[in-house]
Amino acid sequence: MFGSMLVSHAVTWHITLQEQSGSLIALFTAAAMLPMVFVSPFAGVWADRYNRKYLVNAADTAIALITLAVAILYSLGFKSIWLLFITVAARSIGMGIQQPAVNALIPQIVPEGHLARFNGIQGAAQSLTMFAAPMAAGALLTFLPLEHIFFIDVFTAIVGISTVFFFVRVSKVPKQRESTAGINAYIDEAKEGLHFIASQPWLKTLITASAIFGILASPAAMLTPLQVARTFGDDVWRLTAIEIAFSGGMVAGGVLISIWTGFKNKTHTMILAWILFGITTVLFGVIANFWIYLGVMVLCGCAMPLYNTPSMTLMQTKIPPQLMGRVFSVIMVVNGLAMPLSMAVFGPLSDTMRIELLLIITGVLQLFGGFALSTHKELIQAGSEHPIENNQLGPFE
What we know:
This protein has 397 residues and is mainly alpha-helical. The protein has a single domain, classed as MFS general substrate transporter like domains (Growth Hormone, Chain: A). Helices cover 82% and strands 0% of the residues. α8 (201-231) packs parallel to α10 and α8 packs antiparallel against α13. It is globular.
């Protein structure tokens, strides 16, 4: 993750500082998300068909090879912003294959009763990586060309792949039935994930809520660096500071949720996070002091694990293992489309109106969304129920 974060920050900041265009940032967001969306339905079937450990490593290897090829091209002088977009899109395909397998793999190696605590610890560890990566990226960009950061990502990928391959032991998941070849078989297996989602009202509500959250959170997630560059100054250290503040907040939130594990009802913790994120988004639109802005960014980062950890734990404990890859692939499609579609609107808008106004509007809508979520009885009930047994499929069976 550290190497991937270096590349992500380096490319994003390169585009932000060189172009200062909301439309270009929207295009970059689409390149980073849409390929992942398109490949994930197939990836979900693969995650339920094949050994998830090997699938994760294969995707990581492909991403590393793509990054290596671009690093070599850049070193030879083939430097273009469009090459960066192609690179981001290719890496997105690899992530689309990897993520359903990762999410489905975790319950195989973590005892069920410890999933909430593990997800909190994992979130804190990832946030710590996100905390360190902007500082490293900011420092490296001052004296290294972009292609050298790509080479660093290749090295860290080798370390990660080797660690998973040699040290992670994965139990087998019993299959519902024997897999067959052909596109029709893929479609039939993908439909099984959709049918399960349709049979679970709480899951439909959660997926819808996550999509809305992604749409409303995209200005705070993607346009705050541009806001800072326009309002406070386009210094690299300022962009580094907001990334560090956000990641530091996520570390604190991850540690908090790993110790506390949230309210007894997981949905209540998600509602709290949604409201906190809405408040901080509104504050981004009204604060004129950069240092206070950084403090609010810490609170905003803290809200993310409070939402992501209970929602992920809820799904990992209530979705049957045999279907988990396919269900998570559907969730990736919905969430993956939410932010690019949102940025297709908010990105161009940010070039014609103040970003502060966009943040205030979306923050207020997030507050309404958080309160609306508390009225969905099925999701509230699911958040308080015990997880299903691994050998039960519930009404889907």
